[in-house]
């Protein structure tokens, strides 16, 4: 039996329980992921156990297409690592040769991660790799020349929610989408259970200009993680 294919927007689709993005660089996988042809196009499998965004697309109770940025969007990604998730976002926002004219400013503090990210940006125009501490507005602001439409933060640090609010209030457009992937184990400063840590982070978000649209539990795909799907109100 043929699986039902649902488009989640340009260059991203759900087939059964799998998410695929339209490969902007045909013939090349980024993390050894499966590829498949469909007519003139090639699709790459987006692993939800290695990407909190892919996991959220499967776990959200709302319309998943609202979470992903649009072709041509200007995006800021904090904690890009070697660029696994960034590459799938690039498939949607930039496409082959960046014909959508999108941009993903991808920040990571680790020189080891940055080496791979720079290599990725050489074959995927539109990715701007930046070696910097994402907590420091002064370090990242020279690379962000206009407010962004979409922000994702995936940093293994404590005070994740405070950092997210600070960055969103400076760099996110009004009505822009902000996604915070929160790992309970990294929140060393707040005592208590995992649930308590998530509640404390949510309080911080709700006491800012951000509106929490959904707290997406990633259980079964990324343990002890939630993704806060937010919008900036002003
Ligand atoms: C969980 S990994 C990100 C995985 C990545 N988002 C993905 O889906 O492929 C967290 C990353 O945050 C980076 N990081 C940690 N602290 C940071 C900071 N203060 N500024 C920028 N990057 C940081 C780490 O080097 C690491 O690559």
Question: How does the SSE layout of this entry go?
Answer:
Elements: E1 5-7, E2 12-15, E3 18-22, E4 35-38, E5 41-46, H1 52-59, E6 74-78, H2 84-93, E7 103-108, H3 111-123, E8 127-131, H4 137-140, E9 148-153, H5 160-171, E10 172-183, H6 194-206, E11 210-217, E12 225-232
Parallel strand pairs: 6-7, 6-9, 7-8, 9-10
Antiparallel strand pairs: 1-2, 2-3, 3-5, 4-5, 10-12, 11-12
Helix pairs in contact: 5-6
The structure holds S-adenosylmethionine.
Give an account of the 3D structure:
- With 234 residues, the chain is of the alpha/beta class.
- It is built from six helices and twelve strands.
- It has helices at 52-59, 84-93, 111-123, 137-140, 160-171, 194-206; strands spanning 5-7, 12-15, 18-22, 35-38, 41-46, 74-78, 103-108, 127-131, 148-153, 172-183, 210-217, 225-232.
- The longest helix is centred in the middle third of the chain and has 13 residues, at 111-123.
- The termini are far apart.
- The site of S-adenosylmethionine has 18 residues, from helix 2 and strand 7.
Short description:
This protein has 234 residues and is of the alpha/beta class. It is built from six helices and twelve strands.
List the defining traits of the structure above.
alpha/beta, 234 residues, 5-stranded antiparallel sheet, globular, Rossmann fold, binds S-adenosylmethionine, 6 helices
**Major pleated sheet:** 7 strands, mixed
Mean pLDDT: 95
Number of strands: 12
- Global Rg: 17 Å
The number of distinct structural domains comes to 1
Q: CATH topology, anyone?
A: Rossmann fold
Give the helix tally. Answer: 6
Spans of at least 5 consecutive residues whose pLDDT stays below 50 are none
The CATH class label is Alpha Beta
Q: What is the percentage of strand-forming residues?
A: 25-35%
Oligomer: single chain
Give the helices and strands as they follow along the chain.
EEEEEHEHEHEHEHEHEE
The percentage helix is: 25-40%
CATH architectural label: 3-Layer(aba) Sandwich
Biggest sheet strand line-up? 8-7-6-9-10-12-11
Bound molecules: S-adenosylmethionine
Structural class: alpha/beta
